[in-house]
Amino acid sequence: MSRVIDQAITVVSAEHCKGCSLCVISCPQECLGLLTSFNSRGYHPAHYRGEGCTGCGMCFYACPEPAAITVYKKGAEYPD
Question: What is this structure's pTM?
Fold first, then answer.
């Protein structure tokens, strides 16, 4: 099941993220940060702070890890 979202969001897979912070640096809206906790591989993964995303995709293109970041633009279907 999915729903149509009314604002853009960024979803970061904590297990795929290596905490390089390239997405954090590249985000013009400054809506990403690094967690203080570790993932199972010992990295501080990036996370979406919950607001401010415009869906520009800069974080997605800056990320060197396939499948670590997914950007959902406003009006997209988001899987629940």
Answer: 0.89
Question: Position of tokens 């406003």?
Answer: 74
Domain span at 56: 2-79
Specify the CATH number for the domain of residue 7. Answer: 3.30.70.20
Q: Read out DSSP for the chain?
A: -EEE-SS-EEEE-TTT-----HHHHH-TT--EEE-SS--TTS---EEE-SS------HHHHH--STTSEEEE-TT-EEE-
Contact 71, 58 (CB under 8 A): no
The tens digit of pLDDT for each residue in 33-52 reads 999 999 999 999 999 999 99
